[in-house]
Amino acid sequence: MASSSRSLSATLRTFPTRVPTLQRSPPSIPLTPRSVVPNPIVYSLGPKGVLLIGSKSKKFDCKAKSSMAEIATEKGKGKVQVFDSEEDLAVSVAKYTADLSDKFAKERGAFTVVFSGGSLIKCLRKLVEPPYIDSVDWSKWHVFWVDERVVPKDHPDSNYLLAYNGLLSKVPIPPGNVYSINDALSPEAAADDYETCVKHLVHKKIIDLSAATGFPKFDLMLIGMGPDGHVASLFPGHPLVKENKQWVTYIKDSPKPPPERITFTFPVINSSAHIALVAPGASKAHPVHVALGNGQTSDVLPVQLVSPEGELTWFLDKEAASKL
Q: What is the mean pLDDT, run by run of 10 residues, along the chain of 324 residues?
């Protein structure tokens, strides 16, 4: 068993290449928290699973396309897609990601994509199957993590290990294009090091810089959501939710183990060109109801602060959307 662990560690150490520190201070941008949307839209489930959407006095049909229904939301909430099953959701997430990969590879010569942990990687499993495994230009991918647990890369809690086993080991992304944290550092140092890595890639023009915010503008962020409404490692009621200067910060008292993590901040998340918020499962029904419907909570949930300057698309299954 020890030999097997050392072998895995040696394999994982091939990712990624570290980069030198750039002496530049991160920009500052005010972050205005969003409250629960006033005058919420009313949702109900009509015959044959067709979602009915409207105001208090008016409803209209949202016709399903194949196994998917789209929900109309108020401005700023993004497009919401609801699928009959998690399998159908995974197929759509793969197509969505592959289409954006093709678009940015042709336009920019690079595709910067950010992963989270949890069930997100499982929802990307269709990317390693035909037709995407052979049609995606993997050489153009540059992979990052919206958050990471400060544990060794071969630790079961590592988001990197989850992505490596689920995707990275199965597709030909150049090892130097995969940017994980330096797990030998303290949480504070690991956050500083990761921010330095991102700044270096902005300087090399691999990552765009948002003209509107001055923060890095990733092509696509694929993020999940916890049952408590947290995204990345930004948890309800935690001071890091309000961080608006750093690109990457750290947490030592995460309410969800392990306690030590690094995370992108909301100004970085919301500077993205595209965000896919992937949240299947019944455990996500309450925060989905708060973020998209008329559900109430005592505090603003972190997921309610996801509001990119680009496009936001929600990927839900019927269980996650059951309270809408």
A: 46 47 35 31 34 32 53 72 96 98 98 95 96 96 98 96 96 97 97 98 97 97 97 96 97 96 98 97 96 86 94 97 94
Task: Give residue for tokens 């961080």.
Answer: 243
Using a 10 angstrom Cβ sphere, with 0-12 exposed, 13-18 middle and 19 or more buried, the burial of residue 73 is buried
The CATH number assigned to the domain with range 66-317 reads 3.40.50.1360
What does the domain layout of the chain look like in residue ranges? 66-317
pLDDT per position as a tens digit, 152-177 = 999 999 999 999 999 999 999 999 99
Specify whether the CB–CB gap between 39 and 55 falls below 8 A. Answer: yes
Contact status, residue 89 vs residue 124, Cβ threshold 8 Å: no
In this predicted structure, what is the pLDDT of residue 54?
Answer: 34
**Reading across the β-sheet that carries 248-251, which strands appear in turn?**
147-149, 261-264, 248-251
Q: How many CB atoms lie within 10 A of CB 166?
A: 18
